[in-house]
Amino acid sequence: MNKYEVMFIVKPAEEEAVEAVVAKFENLIKTNGGEIEKIDRWGKRRLAFEIKDFAEGHYFVVYFAAQPKVISELDRVMKITDEILRHMIIRQGE
C-alpha cells in the first residue's frame, strides 16, 4: 500500500454537517481497504480568493495508506460532492 494525503476544503456550515462530510470520506477510504493514520482539522479559515461565492471554508488534511484504486474512487466522489470546495490528493514520498 502507498501512503497518501488528501487536503480538502468544506463549505462553511454547521459543525454536524461538516463532520458528516469528513465521516463520509473516512468511511470511503476504510471500506475500500485503506487505513487512516491521522486527520488534521485546521478549522475554519479565510480563503485566498472566493471559490463558488464562498470566502471561508473548513480545512482538513487526511493522511492514509491505500491501494491506487482507492485514490481514483476518492477523487471521483470528491468531485461530485457539493460540500467540497477544493481537494488535492498527493502521494507521500518514499
Secondary-structure topology with pairs:
Blueprint: E1 2-10, H1 15-31, E2 35-51, E3 54-66, H2 68-80, E4 84-91
Structure description:
This protein has 94 residues and is an alpha+beta fold. It has a single domain, classed as Alpha-Beta Plaits (2-Layer Sandwich). Helix content is 32%, strand content 50%. The chain is built from two helices and four strands; from the N terminus they run E-H-E-E-H-E. It has a four-stranded antiparallel β-sheet, covered by helices on one side. A hairpin with a 2-residue loop joins strand 2 (35-51) and strand 3. The relative contact order is 0.35. The model has no long low-confidence stretch (mean pLDDT 93).
Key traits:
94 residues, alpha+beta, Alpha-Beta Plaits, 4-stranded antiparallel β-sheet
User: What is the strand arrangement across the widest sheet?
Assistant: 2-3-1-4
Beta strand count: 4
The third-level CATH topology is Alpha-Beta Plaits
User: What is the helix content?
Assistant: 25-40%
Q: What does the radius of gyration come to? A: 13 Å
Query: For this structure, what is the CATH homologous superfamily?
Result: Ribosomal protein S6/Translation elongation factor EF1B
Global shape: globular
**Count of the separate structural domains:** 1
Provide the low-confidence segments as ranges: none
Q: What is the C-level CATH assignment? A: Alpha Beta
Q: Could you state the oligomeric state of the chains shown?
A: single chain
Strand content: over 45%
> Mind describing the biggest β-sheet?
4 strands, antiparallel
CATH architecture identity? 2-Layer Sandwich
